């Protein structure tokens, strides 16, 4: 586990001042750079030691067999796995005759800094070789947000106290040896050397390698080119082979003299384009990067980020950890999505191979809310990606004997890759999550064009799915049976409240969207009768309620299931120590489910129901999923448990900076990092939008003295500045001179001419703060 | 599919008069010989052509990996698979220089006869070689019921119309090439050559091969020895290698002269005994067989079977197909169990590799009722096998965080081998099925000693399992959640009626057994309080009932689930065309579940409930499982639909003789074959025992004019002889001069001095005969 001392707490940087080899994997994830198209883990330039070498291209994957000891109809036969592509980060250094390797000699100084405003990772090393020669190395790396195909590294070596002969080998390496993460020999075989060489070429200062995946037949190109600066004589040569290219730079440095190399990298891949076309594309991109130059790349990087922070930054006064963490999260979510451009946003972004590089409902459920309010163009592109997979989702629905479209539980390209159906296929809610993300985008941006372009078709086909999934019983009540909600410890149940509410929302939203786009709806074959059926199903959807306890059962009968014995079964996460056959029929919860329903479908619950439900589910939630703390933060804040909410917000934000789930090595948790924003903005800011109105209702925990955040709403830019007494709303840039919002459940008008300050609504919790299951109390952040 | 013409309908034989190569696999299963220890498929002596060569030793298996694309805690990692052991059936023949092969030359006559009273398979072939030489071959094969380790073949060749040189090679062959049935390359690799040679030796007329499985490390020995008779000069030599041994017999035959060879075979295996010990064991067994001689083996075989038929035969007048089929079924069930002696009775017996050779709840649920009434020693041994796996079942329960013992869903040796938990681990009822089989044995035989020996411990540990699986809700109602009943199209549900009734029976039976054996119960740590808890749980077990419809839902909420659309989804079996995610939440049933509850827990249902339940479930049952028709037969007869019951009885009985499930090639369906007996005896004979009393209540369908069957009950031998008017009970051999039974719901006293004839209870169905789902009407046997 990472302690608070490994990374210095600063508002805009993640700084490491000592190299802890036992945390190499984790730091590689934390220091990963990406623009949503290219992803590079924070591996050391010299390649070794490493935790997991990683360079990824969004949606560049290999197909692998999914084995079943007992197969069933409709089980996916092929999985998709992100592959480690040609590594362009490698810059090896020989000091006289000795390779620079932190495991040998002496590392006199070490620092790595991830700069959240500059968008760079800078490393400084002062090293004494085993023979006693000292060098100072400074490398700065970026993956360009402005130039999508481009990454670059500035690498400088300085001789310290005597003349030093320096040899730098800057490389492209394909099919690196990677520690295997799977124990299935067939799968390991597929991924052992995933890339087939199809071409290589080189010039004096650069090279291009072309490869293709064996089964998925995706072509990729990686190109490099170098600028070299050094006071004296220098020799630069380049060679290349099937899986390698090396530019070698040799020179002598007197004390204080420096060798500076800028390495420009370009990547491209395609399932369609020819080898020459892809080769030219990479060559052009690397030339473009050289033309822009290092300083130019740095400048455009900063400008891109300045623009982002201007309307996304969150300021958390009084809690420097959360301050750093929420910006860290925003930065990584942006990195995962900025230039994804109609590709998926994987659960781990492009920071590691966790979950095989798959995208889940995490995207629409947790990441897109943040992006919709802060970088709506990126949200729109992510939604366009989903819409682009609609035909595959239609095929899947047809295979399952359903109408409409069934989007996959996990995928890279759009095909269902989930091999365990009770927590995959049965998690139908992913379809309603997607529909809601389209609707949220329309409401928040005020832009109907995405709906016209592709959203309507998604809404219609998902509504059709729900109608074929649900059914009216003989009493006219509409049920969805055999369904799994967000909570993966309770599966294949009747009437999961979250799913039923979200499905009803999907059905109604589809009907309303059809009225907005009647011609397109007609093309899709939607009739008045079909729309009426959607509304009827939505109106008749069963929402179970336990009158005796005054709480909503998460699904039919949930509150009468066996209670989990937390006194004797407390090894977490439970799924590694207890079988599903025991977890499913017990009142034990992996992650917010009913509680998430109260956040996303806030209008369907009274304040008293919210209070009682939070109290009930807090006592039974293990938070074994990383998709939980943020939601618990929001709803604990909602019902007045502000200190507990602060604890959860902290957990969500620090998940990777403290490696709270012990798997940051596999990549960062994008949904939780986005959830950190949600915890602050929806939790302590009170942001809701499920009624189609911007609703805010701030209230701060004692540990946060002031919270400022920015939102985009229908071309307005809004700043919310809350303290313990009041909140000041500043609105600018909008299409009108005022904006009506809901503050603390009341409508107020905000003028664009001047800030508006209003008092907060004091919140008294109905119930005392609840207990969590033993051993699952959150990390405490409260200031007593 | 096998038509009615492939096998001639005779009361005591299965006779094939033409060799249809397209049905070779199926005929190999039908003509399989076994004694429960050794199993031999009905392969042709010359080895080729074959469907699936198969020689099996009960519980001799190899371990193989169980692959999971997404694994979970508690999933079994290793499977067990029956292996094809050294083949001793092979007797090759050269006619002059041409190998006898039915695919070449001309097969002028062919006959195979399985004799159900002799316990032999006899084959007659009259063949003309491609060169025109004619020979007549007669082979008779048996697997000895009297000498457990022994099989034997009498092989005769006769020259027909000219002098013929005849060469016979009688072989042992290990690691035969077998068509692969799995598409997982790792598993196929394990089973490709499962046997490692550890020794071989030969004499002039015999040989022994010793092998060991690679992973499970089970040692086996196969031995052969030959008697040769021929008029003229003969040369007999034997050779052997690692995987083969051959005795070669060469002679010349004039027309009408015969070569007769008797091949004695012996098999043994052990996980403990040394190589020399096992070698000696096989050598002694083969010597013993020679000592007995062919005629002696034939005689003891017939005596064993005479004794069996004396108290097991069922006579079905008016329905010759069912007459043949029920005897065929009884014969094969006996073959699967007679000398199993504390080994499992697999679902396919030892007739094929279907289900990997695993034993399921089929044994206790379907096979043991028959054996308990007809061959109680075999039932006792099967129960002793279960009890011998108790420690493994305890370990499994502990792994699943449960108390007591959890017996496996499928296994060879006792470890859980089910890789799909919703239809495996969650099928907890297997534990109650086992408990009930112990209790039935005690009631029917009147023998408490098995309970004392091992049954009590099983009852106690399974009762403990139920207590930890179920729970009382806040209203004091006892539920079992997350459970799968017999019907595999509805899984992981609440309060499956079958399971709850069977669990309650298990709990009560355990408590009563503890009172019978107080000392042993105390040793097992059973207290009065624990017994009280068992009884309370049993009394409070929830049995859902739908008052509106007047039927029992199969599980909580079942009658409000979506109805299956049979008009558009009618490709059977549904599991090959529809995903579980769609089947589970619909009112579609694979196999009798609630209907089986009404058979096994008859006392818990009123006649009206039975009638309404049969009517309701008939309309929704696809009979996609082979464990259904027999139960439907019993309960349709119970509620007065006698013609429909006859249809189902016929389906159960003919399942393999007509290949109704299209997988007879993989082995016979022991449960359905046993079920054919149950359909007649419990269906048309009305046999019930769940109240602890022998209850009979015969009523025949129009197509059966007279039904006679035999039962053992507490040392009595009872013959029941029913026609359409009355029934005659004949009781003999018992410990008293009379026996009280329940006839047609009334108690009557049967004297052993003379038969008792009583009138039948006329049965008027409450409801008209129900419809089945379209396409799932049974084969019609009724005589209109």
From TrEMBL, chains A, B:
<dbReference type="InterPro" id="IPR011013">
    <property type="entry name" value="Gal_mutarotase_sf_dom"/>
</dbReference>
<dbReference type="InterPro" id="IPR012341">
    <property type="entry name" value="6hp_glycosidase-like_sf"/>
</dbReference>
<keyword id="KW-0378">Hydrolase</keyword>
<dbReference type="GO" id="GO:0005975">
    <property type="term" value="P:carbohydrate metabolic process"/>
</dbReference>
<feature type="binding site">
    <location>
        <begin position="590"/>
        <end position="591"/>
    </location>
    <ligand>
        <name>substrate</name>
    </ligand>
</feature>
<protein>
    <submittedName>
        <fullName>Glycoside hydrolase family 65 protein</fullName>
    </submittedName>
</protein>
<keyword id="KW-0326">Glycosidase</keyword>
<dbReference type="Pfam" id="PF03633">
    <property type="entry name" value="Glyco_hydro_65C"/>
</dbReference>
<dbReference type="InterPro" id="IPR008928">
    <property type="entry name" value="6-hairpin_glycosidase_sf"/>
</dbReference>
<feature type="region of interest" description="Disordered">
    <location>
        <begin position="762"/>
        <end position="784"/>
    </location>
</feature>
<dbReference type="GO" id="GO:0030246">
    <property type="term" value="F:carbohydrate binding"/>
</dbReference>
<feature type="domain" description="Glycoside hydrolase family 65 central catalytic">
    <location>
        <begin position="327"/>
        <end position="678"/>
    </location>
</feature>
<feature type="domain" description="Glycoside hydrolase family 65 N-terminal">
    <location>
        <begin position="16"/>
        <end position="270"/>
    </location>
</feature>
<dbReference type="GO" id="GO:0016757">
    <property type="term" value="F:glycosyltransferase activity"/>
</dbReference>
<comment type="similarity">
    <text>Belongs to the glycosyl hydrolase 65 family.</text>
</comment>
<dbReference type="InterPro" id="IPR005195">
    <property type="entry name" value="Glyco_hydro_65_M"/>
</dbReference>
<dbReference type="GO" id="GO:0004553">
    <property type="term" value="F:hydrolase activity, hydrolyzing O-glycosyl compounds"/>
</dbReference>
<feature type="compositionally biased region" description="Pro residues">
    <location>
        <begin position="767"/>
        <end position="776"/>
    </location>
</feature>
<dbReference type="InterPro" id="IPR005194">
    <property type="entry name" value="Glyco_hydro_65_C"/>
</dbReference>
<dbReference type="InterPro" id="IPR037018">
    <property type="entry name" value="GH65_N"/>
</dbReference>
<dbReference type="InterPro" id="IPR005196">
    <property type="entry name" value="Glyco_hydro_65_N"/>
</dbReference>
<feature type="active site" description="Proton donor">
    <location>
        <position position="488"/>
    </location>
</feature>
<dbReference type="Pfam" id="PF03636">
    <property type="entry name" value="Glyco_hydro_65N"/>
</dbReference>
<feature type="domain" description="Glycoside hydrolase family 65 C-terminal">
    <location>
        <begin position="687"/>
        <end position="750"/>
    </location>
</feature>
<dbReference type="Pfam" id="PF03632">
    <property type="entry name" value="Glyco_hydro_65m"/>
</dbReference>
<dbReference type="InterPro" id="IPR017045">
    <property type="entry name" value="Malt_Pase/Glycosyl_Hdrlase"/>
</dbReference>
<feature type="binding site">
    <location>
        <begin position="361"/>
        <end position="362"/>
    </location>
    <ligand>
        <name>substrate</name>
    </ligand>
</feature>
């Amino acid at each position: 586990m990472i302690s608070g001392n490994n990374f210095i707490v600063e508002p805009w940087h993640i700084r490491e001042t000592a190299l802890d080899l036992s945390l190499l994997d984790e730091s590689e994830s934390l220091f990963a750079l990406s623009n949503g198209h290219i992803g590079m883990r924070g591996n050391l330039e010299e390649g070794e030691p490493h935790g997991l070498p990683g360079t990824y291209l969004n949606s560049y994957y290999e197909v692998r067999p999914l084995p079943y000891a007992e197969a069933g109809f409709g089980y996916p036969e092929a999985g998709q796995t992100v592959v480690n592509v040609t590594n362009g980060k490698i810059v090896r250094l020989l000091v006289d005759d000795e390779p620079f390797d932190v495991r040998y000699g002496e590392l006199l100084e070490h620092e790595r800094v991830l700069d959240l405003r500059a968008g760079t990772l800078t490393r400084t090393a002062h090293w004494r070789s085993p023979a006693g020669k000292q060098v100072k190395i400074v490398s700065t790396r970026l993956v360009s947000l402005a130039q999508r195909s481009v990454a670059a590294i500035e690498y400088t070596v300085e001789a310290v106290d005597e003349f030093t002969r320096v040899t730098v080998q800057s490389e492209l390496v394909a099919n690196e040896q990677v520690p295997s993460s799977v124990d299935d020999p067939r799968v390991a075989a597929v991924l052992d050397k995933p890339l087939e060489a199809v071409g290589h070429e080189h010039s004096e200062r650069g090279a291009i390698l072309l490869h293709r995946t064996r089964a998925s037949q995706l072509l990729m190109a990686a190109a490099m080119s170098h600028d070299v600066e050094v006071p004296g004589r220098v020799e630069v040569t380049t060679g290349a082979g099937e899986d390698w290219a090396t530019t070698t730079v040799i020179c002598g440095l007197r004390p204080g003299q420096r060798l500076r190399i800028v390495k420009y990298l370009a990547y491209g891949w395609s399932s369609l384009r020819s080898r020459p076309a892809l080769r030219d594309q990479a060559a052009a991109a690397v030339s473009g990067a050289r033309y822009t130059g290092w300083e130019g790349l740095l400048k455009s990087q900063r400008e891109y980020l300045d623009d982002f922070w201007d309307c996304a930054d969150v300021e958390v006064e009084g809690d420097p950890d959360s301050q750093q963490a929420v910006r860290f999260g925003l930065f990584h979510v942006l990195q995962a999505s900025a230039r994804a451009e109609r590709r998926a946003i994987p659960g781990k972004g492009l920071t590691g191979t966790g979950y095989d590089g798959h995208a889940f409902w995490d995207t629409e459920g947790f990441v897109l809310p943040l992006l919709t309010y802060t970088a709506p163009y990126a949200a729109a592109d992510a939604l366009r990606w989903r819409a682009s997979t609609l035909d595959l989702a239609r095929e899947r629905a047809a295979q399952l004997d359903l109408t409409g479209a069934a989007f996959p539980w996990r995928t890279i390209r759009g095909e269902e890759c989930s091999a365990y159906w009770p927590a995959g296929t049965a998690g139908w809610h992913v379809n309603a999550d997607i529909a809601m993300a389209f609707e949220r985008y329309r409401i928040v941006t005020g832009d109907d064009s995405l709906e016209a372009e592709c959203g309507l078709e998604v809404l219609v086909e998902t509504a059709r799915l729900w109608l074929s999934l649900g059914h009216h019983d003989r009493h006219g009540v509409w049920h969805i049976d055999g369904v799994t909600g967000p909570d993966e410890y309770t599966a294949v149940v009747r009437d999961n409240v979250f799913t039923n509410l979200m499905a009803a929302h999907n059905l109604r939203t589809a009907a309303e969207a059809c009225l907005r786009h009647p011609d397109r709806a007609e093309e899709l074959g939607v009739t008045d009768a079909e729309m009426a059926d959607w509304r009827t199903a939505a109106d008749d959807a069963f929402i179970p309620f336990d009158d005796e306890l005054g709480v909503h059962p998460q699904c039919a009968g949930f509150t009468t299931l066996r209670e989990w014995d937390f006194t004797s079964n407390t090894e977490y996460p439970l799924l590694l120590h207890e079988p599903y056959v025991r977890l499913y029929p017990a009142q034990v919860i992996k992650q917010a489910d009913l509680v998430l329903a109260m956040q996303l479908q806030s209008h369907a619950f009274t304040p008293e129901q919210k209070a009682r439900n939070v109290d009930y589910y807090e006592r039974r939630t293990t938070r074994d999923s990383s998709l939980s703390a943020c939601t618990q933060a929001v709803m604990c804040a909602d019902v007045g448990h502000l200190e507990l909410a602060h604890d959860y917000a902290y957990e969500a934000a620090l998940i990777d900076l403290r490696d709270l789930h012990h798997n940051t090595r596999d990549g960062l948790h994008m949904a939780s990092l986005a959830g950190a924003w949600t915890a602050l903005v929806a939790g302590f800011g009170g942001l809701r939008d499920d009624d189609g109105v911007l609703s805010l209702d701030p209230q701060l925990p004692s540990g946060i003295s002031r919270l400022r955040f920015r939102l985009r709403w229908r071309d307005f830019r809004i700043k919310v500045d809350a303290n313990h007494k009041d909140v000041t709303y500043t609105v600018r840039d909008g299409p009108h001179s005022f904006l009506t919002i809901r503050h603390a459940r009341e409508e107020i008008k905000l003028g664009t001419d001047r800030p508006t300050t209003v008092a907060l609504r004091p919140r008294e919790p109905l119930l005392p703060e609840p207990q969590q299951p033993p051993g699952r109390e959150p990390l405490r952040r409260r200031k007593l």
